[in-house]
Design brief:
Layout (H helix, E strand, L loop, with lengths): L8 H14 L34 E8 L5 H6 L4 E4 L3 E5 L12 E2 L3 E5 L2 H12 L10 E2 L9 E8 L2 E8 L11 H15 L10 E2 L5 E7 L8 E2 L23 E5 L1 H5 L10 E3 L2 E4 L2 E9 L7
Parallel strand pairs: 6-8, 11-14
Antiparallel strand pairs: 1-2, 1-7, 2-3, 3-5, 4-13, 5-9, 7-8, 10-12, 10-15, 14-15
Helix pairs in contact: 1-3
Length: 297
């Protein structure tokens, strides 16, 4: 790992708490409109090397699995991603206001831009105080059923590493991995609440593209079925996966204007459920999922 002096945890926490406030707001469309540049090393020879491209993942935190509806999985956006150029895209913790008889939208997606010094501080925090430098790749928890798995991904210091922890933060009894799991849980909590509950400055994320997903809703009754919103698109324009063993849901990459055509307020954060179309006498549930800079489909 890097020989750079590790800052005390208290100093790093203060640095992280001021990142969004001190960083300049992202300009233009941070959703991948800029041409990506791939560079393997940090500009500073004294810092921790990391990818520098606008679509290169340096640090990501997310959760996968768990007992949730298929629409939720289709709409899910990674909770936190730091890209090589300093762009941060994260899902806000602010609750979504329930709207009766309206489609359910996702939590607000926000963005900020970090300086190289702030990138270095965050990488150091994740590796040292966050435990990623010493964590192994997999932590199972057979005592907890239907719980999500926390997934950390880091690409820095000449290495790429993914750490998966099932049921992070809900261990029933102490064990040999309790200390590292506690450390990883604190890192996950910090990244999951990157803007400290909305108290730190950030801007709305403007996706360059969206993924539209159509799922057959057999047996669903009593729902509001809307008119098909795209005169220029047919059902066949939403492609089924070639692999017959995976969930057969139709998908298509949509432009921002095509996404806006669904006529749902707050669509920029995605549409999770409650939006239905009928095509050729088949009822479909439609999910809209914003794409991040590293995603093209």
């Amino acid at each position: 790992m890097s020989n750079r002096t590790i800052l005390p945890a208290t100093v790093l926490l203060v640095t992280l708490a001021t990142i969004a406030c001190t960083s300049p707001g992202a300009t233009g469309s941070p959703g991948g409109s800029a041409s990506p540049t791939a560079a393997p090393a940090s500009p500073s020879s004294e810092g921790i090397a990391h990818p520098t491209g606008a679509d290169d993942i340096v640090l990501r935190y997310d959760e996968s699995g768990g007992f949730v509806p298929v629409e939720f999985l289709a709409a899910h956006v990674p909770y936190f991603t730091l890209y090589g150029d300093g762009t941060v895209v994260f899902v806000s913790n602010e609750p979504v206001v329930f709207r009766e008889n309206q489609p359910a939208i996702g939590q607000s997606i926000r963005t900020a831009k970090l300086s190289e010094a702030q990138i270095q501080d965050l990488i150091e925090f994740a590796l040292a105080d966050g435990g990623l430098a010493i964590a192994r790749e997999q932590y199972d928890n057979p005592m907890v059923a239907d719980a999500p798995t926390a997934v950390f991904e880091i690409n820095a210091d000449g290495d790429s590493k993914t750490v998966s922890v099932m049921a992070l933060g809900i261990d029933a009894e102490p064990g040999p991995d309790t200390a590292i799991k506690t450390t990883l849980a604190k890192l996950g909590e910090r990244l999951r609440d990157f803007d400290a509950g909305g108290s730190l400055a950030s801007q709305p994320y403007a996706p360059a593209a969206y993924r539209g997903i159509l799922l057959e809703a057999a047996g669903v009754q009593g729902v509001n079925v809307r008119d098909w919103p795209w005169p220029e698109l047919a059902l066949a324009d939403f492609n089924l996966p070639a692999d017959a063993s995976v969930l057969q849901q139709r998908t298509r990459v949509l432009t921002p204007s095509e996404a806006e055509a669904v006529d749902v307020a707050g669509f920029e954060a995605g549409v999770q459920s409650g939006l239905y179309y009928r095509v050729d006498d088949v009822l479909y549930s439609f999910v809209l999922r914003p794409l991040l800079p590293d995603e093209d489909a």
